[in-house]
Hints:
The complex is a heterodimer of chains A (369) and B (309). By secondary structure, chain A is an alpha/beta fold. Chain A is built from 14 helices and 13 strands.
Amino acid sequence: MALIQARAATDPTLETEVVTYREALFRAMRDALARDPRVIIFGQGVDDHKGTFGSTLGLAQEFGAARVFDTPLAEEGMTGIAIGAALNGLYPIQTHIRSDFVLLAMNQIVNLAAKYKYMFGGRFEVPMLIRMVIGRSWGQGAQHSQSFQSLFAHVPGLTVIMPASAQSILECYPYVIGRHRGPVLAIEHRLMYDLKFRMDEVAEKANGSPLTSRKVRAGNDVTIVATSIMVLEAQRAAEHLARVGGIQCEIIDLNCVSHPDRSLIVESVGRTGKLLVADTSWQAYGVCAEICRIVCEHSPSALKAPVVTLGMQPAPCPTAKSLEDRYYPNLRDLTDAVATLVTGTDHHGIPLPDEHSMADVYKRFKGPF
Amino acid sequence: MKFPGIYEELFYKALRIRLVEERIIELYPSDKIQSPVHLSIGQEAVAVGACQSLKQTDLLFCSYRSHAFYLAKGGHLREMFAELYGKATGCGHGKAGSMHLAAPEVGLMGSSAVVASTIPHAVGAALAAERLKKPQVIVAVFGDGATEEGAYHESLNFAALHKLPIVLLCENNGLAVHSKLEARQAYRITDQAKSYGLPVAYLADGHDVVKVHEVFSGIVGEVRRSRCPHFVEIRTCRYKEHVGPDEDSHAGYRSVEELQAWKSKDPLILNQELVAQYRPVILQEIDDAVEFAERSPWPERSELLSDVV
Lengths: 369, 309
Ligand SMILES: Cc1ncc(C[n+]2csc(CCOP(=O)(O)OP(=O)(O)O)c2C)c(N)n1
Ligand SMILES: [Mg+2]
């Protein structure tokens, strides 16, 4: 949008180039440091030779240890320190290599950051960004794989984004850091870091903020609302179904989980009459439930079939690959669910992709999307 | 197995752990172990020396770097390999992987991938031992990085305040992932523990399994008798990368000289005579365990949703 177009104007290659998720994150971090001397980045390992999976690599050398620095293992304290720093004029970016560790900082995020503005009658602002990464595959297990968007988005005062493309990162992060005045949690997906994305859909938004949902595919047969890597899975399923079944899926990337574009969702479901929600987390009390709430509250009669939801199995994540592959919905499950929903029968006869392990695919497949 | 003396026995146990982890390194490229592994190579003497004076009924809680403690505490090797393979016969039925080994039958009460998260569990177990008058000693094992977490301080305070029968064992390898201790801590670990009123011991020679055993048996004896908490910090050295099977001393974040200095004192490297003597029988046991893992079944589909609630 405005920002990306401004960038595109000065960098004509940007709109058509292919950018990895990691590269987009790195650019967003580097640009933020370069643009505003008040920006600091801290987190465990931000300055080491791995550099937060490459997204902060070399930035401590380039911008100095006063601006990019490692921290003790002290998640709650460091988040409180970020809040204090924000209150006194810095723009802190805190990183976590797994979202699971953010639970230790929940008190500062929920009781303090989310409320600092409201609780004092609007006299304070805590502009800050907390980045965290969802782990998946290779035996990440119960404590390195969780996806907490709905826990955060449940709390008024927090803005939660889940970028599903390099495009989203390069539109949202500069906006968050440069213009947004409140605490933002960005939930990134580890399996997407190596994927390449085409920078080619610059959609106009009326209010100018990228912190909302985005339509990434148009279609009239079914509405798929998805988050994070499930947006990519939905796109793959949609392409398959268009090719072999003549089914046209509309896909909405929720993108800003805390502030979805309700009218985009309601309008789409009004047209297709069918809704499938695919999230990276558990279905109960989560994004799946919330999207159903939006539709039920705004347009209950639009639905011509029961809603279908896909997410993680209702259990902690097992480590054994044989179990883990069943724990997450795969391309076959998703495609089958869409085909069943659209045709109204599970004897739909549409050939399904023979793919059972998304993790295997993402290891080989690098895009571009 | 009979040993001529305590040195040989401890040496054997430490060598067994090293050879197990070296087998993991060998197997890793085959992708049969689809789990992140935090190897203890270089740190075996701490686990072996510490567990030598513990009884099976004494309870131990540790971190994701748990292979050494799992074995030293008496966990079954077959079930460990099966767990690494993600098999139904693993100690966690394929749901644990390397990071969550447990063997309650021998008092290994769990290992967690969230830093410092099991320290309060150990304190709670010590509270139960005290209230229920169980003659146990409880051990909390954690790294130097864990001492930076809030839960660590909250746990030390409570253990000291309530005089609980616990040994707080800090395995200080000077690193948290790639961060040196000096970049993270403004305090000294033992001084800090002392400020809670805990009796404190420090051992610089974490490679010396006999010394670790001597220090630890003294402390365990003291806790058994007095039912009061003790703190011990043991310096040690991680030879491999933080997670994974490789060496990464070339990456520039750690001192290669220091690593070499540790290796030059390591009995498992120096005493090749004893290595040669014990290696065959250990390798036989490892072969058997790996074969057990290989031929074990995958977990049933129904396992996915069992044991949830
Ligand atoms: C609460 C939490 N924060 C961060 C991490 C990521 N992490 C995993 S291991 C580790 C280093 C821990 O260092 P230390 O306690 O010294 O143990 P060591 O790995 O050296 O055995 C970190 C930061 C985590 N697992 N949990
Ligand atoms: Mg350490």
